[in-house]
Amino acid sequence: MSHQRLPNSDRGLARLRTRPALLALIGWWAAAVLATIAWWLLDASMTGDGGHRTQQVGIWLVGFAALGSVIGWGASIGSLVGDRGRIRAGSICLLVIPVLGLLMGWLATSSTVIDPEDPIVPLWLVASGLLLLLATLLILLPEHLGTS
Question: Count of alpha carbons within 13 Å of 99, Cβ hemisphere only?
Answer without folding.
Answer: 6
